Amino acid sequence: MIYVFVGLAGALGALFRYSISISTASLWFFPFPLATLLANIIGCFMLGWFTTRIMKQNKVSKPLAAAMGTGLIGSFTTFSTFSVETVMLLEEKLIITALLYVVSSFIGGLLFAWFGYQLGRRREKSYD
Q1: Which residues are annotated as a binding site for Na(+)?
Q2: Which segments are annotated as binding site?
Q3: 35-55 per-position pLDDT tens digit
Q4: Could you tell me where this protein is found in the cell (predicted)?
Q5: For 57, which DSSP code?
Q6: Cβ atoms of 70 and 14 closer than 8 Å
């Protein structure tokens, strides 16, 4: 049954990811992969919060935790797309853009994972 939960949540995460791609395509014309950056940073925040707020407190069942963490958030974020887009930028000789993308993804991901984690801890303390 856990596979069904992970699969359904994964489909939902993929749809959310696709909606970000569609939404940013009409607003963003620069050769910078904004949709992937947003999905990964939002996903880092969500997983940071979810790990602290929900999983560490055992507030959900293991199947639901797997569905949310691996399925929903895992399919929403995408390291492979990030990697391929970086290679494509380098192939197009957009070295500065590629470096900006890598640095902003790494720093933004860590920063937003930390924000989510801290928010989860703060909410945890307020319920004690």
Answers
A1: 74, 77
A2: 74, 77
A3: 999 999 999 999 999 888 877
A4: Cell membrane
A5: T
A6: no
